[in-house]
Amino acid sequence: MDTIREFDSVWKKFMVMCRAKLMEKSKQCVLSCAAAEMSVQDAASMWFDSYDACGQWLKRLEKDEPQAAKKVRTILQEIKLEEVPAKKGFPELGVIGIAAGGAAAGAGVGAWILHLGTWGTLLSAAIPAVALYPAMKGYQKNEKEKAEKEGITKYLEQLSLIREEIEGALNCSACYVSSQTK
Fold first, then answer.
1. Rounded Cα distance, 179 and 37, in Å
2. Is 116 in contact with 110 (CB distance < 8 Å)?
3. Most confident of the following: 1-10, 69-78, 110-119, 167-176
4. In this structure, are residues 59 and 21 in contact, taking their beta carbons and an 8 Å threshold?
5. pLDDT category of residue 177 using cuts at 50, 70 and 90
6. Residue 6 parent element (H or E)
7. Residue 115 backbone zone (phi > 0: left; psi -120 to 50: alpha; other: beta)
8. What phi and psi values does residue 54 have, to the nearest 5 degrees?
9. Residue 22's closest CA among 181, 14, 5?
10. E strands within 19-159?
11. pLDDT tens by residue, 143-159
12. The pLDDT value given to residue 34
């Protein structure tokens, strides 16, 4: 059971690295399945680096339980992710449309209700547009960041299946070793 406890510890480090790599990639480009897979595989390289805690754990496992280590190594080398559907963000035309709608409403209020002159009507149109556009851009940016975080979380959730597969391989080898010692 120490093997599984040690695995839990290094798995947490691996997950932190995966999250960091996915966040870094999402800042560079849209996080497609291929980009996410490359990022996770890049993070998985730490399992094969003998200077990293994950690599050291795998190296010890190879000494203690070579069959389990071989299975774990294979699982880590063959990490595949499924596509996470991209959430649609707030469109740019929507931002412009809302600002234009605010301008039209302001102009209507200025011209009809307040009976303002030309400059008053122009100002009553410009003020809502100038106020709404940055507010809607902020909303659009928040929606985009929220969608990115959700995508990253869904890719990380897929890694829990890999974890379970590795734990299964470790449990199988633990059962095999305990039956050998009896």
1. 38
2. yes
3. 69-78
4. no
5. very low
6. helix 2-28
7. left
8. -65, -45
9. 14
10. none
11. 888 989 999 999 999 99
12. 93
